[in-house]
Specification:
Elements lengths: L3 E4 L3 H8 L2 E2 L8 E5 L6 E5 L5 E7 L11 H8 L3 E3 H5 L13 E6 L1 E8 L2 E9 L5 E9 L5 E9 L2 H6 L9 E3 L7 H4 L6 H8 L7 E5 L2 E2 L2 E2 L19
Parallel strand pairs: 2-5, 5-11, 6-11
Antiparallel strand pairs: 1-3, 1-8, 4-5, 4-7, 7-10, 8-9, 9-13, 10-11, 11-12, 14-15
Length: about 240
């Protein structure tokens, strides 16, 4: 499950990387750790609107709701992530939007928990060059004109399974991170479901690095030291 992420890059760096412009650049602020519980925005690029970066709330809401219902809805349904297998079997709310309301979610790092002796330690995962990447998602537009989004997850590869070592409904999970050359395809309106399925079963070939980081009340820190390595004494023989 992907529940906390970072985007430490400036608005200009995001715009250059994704060849798109913020619809409201004045409200964008880089962040070190943002979780699904936050009332602050994530930033997405919507299907068929590749040149625009929009703010969106984390947690997929039905389109007939307004944002004041967000907390109540997410307490019940927890739509922060959407499993690819359940989308394909039409067992997930995100399945209704996978054909026409895909998006990418902009990030430069994610946090995953590693369990050791029943204690969870957050690990920060990023590209070796700490460059931006695209998480695959879907979005909704609410009656009040605001957007909500969810991050797609798939069965973990060995690297992610080693870090996020607690199974979720029988499998290890990881967020679906797209190859850069596939980002434009994911946002295209010309895909059939076979194309979408193929992309949902893909993953970036670019390498990641990871390390444990500090936590406060069990959560990563939303400050610069929060993405710096912090090795707990009991973790020295972690791997």
């Amino acid at each position: 499950m992907c529940f906390t992420k970072s985007n430490t890059k400036s608005a200009e760096e995001n715009e250059r990387r994704f060849n798109a412009s913020f619809i409201a650049p004045e409200i964008y602020q880089p962040y070190y750790a943002r979780s699904g519980y936050s009332t602050d925005y994530l930033y997405i690029i919507k299907q068929n609107e590749k040149e625009t970066i929009n703010p969106a709330y984390w947690g997929l809401l039905p389109e007939h709701l307004t944002i004041d219902k967000r907390s109540e809805y997410l307490r019940q349904y927890k739509t922060y992530n959407a499993r690819v297998d359940k989308i394909l079997n039409k067992q997930n709310r995100a399945a209704h939007f996978i054909k026409s309301q895909r998006c990418i979610i902009l990030a430069d790092g994610i946090y995953e928990p590693h369990d050791r002796h029943d204690i969870s330690y957050p690990h920060y995962i990023k590209h070796e060059d700490h460059s931006l990447f695209a998480l695959a998602g879907v979005y909704t537009e609410l009656d009040d004109g605001l957007y909500t989004t969810t991050i797609l997850t798939r069965e973990a590869n060995p690297y992610f399974a080693k870090i996020h070592n607690r199974k979720k409904e029988g499998t290890y999970r990881m967020p679906l991170i797209l190859n850069q050359e596939n980002e434009s395809d994911w946002l295209s309106g010309n895909l059939n479901m076979n194309d979408v399925t193929e992309l949902m079963n893909s993953f970036t070939i670019k390498k990641f690095v990871d390390y444990p980081v500090r936590k406060r009340s069990g959560q990563p820190l939303n400050e610069s030291e929060g993405i710096e390595p912090f090795f707990y004494p009991e973790q020295q023989s972690l791997f």
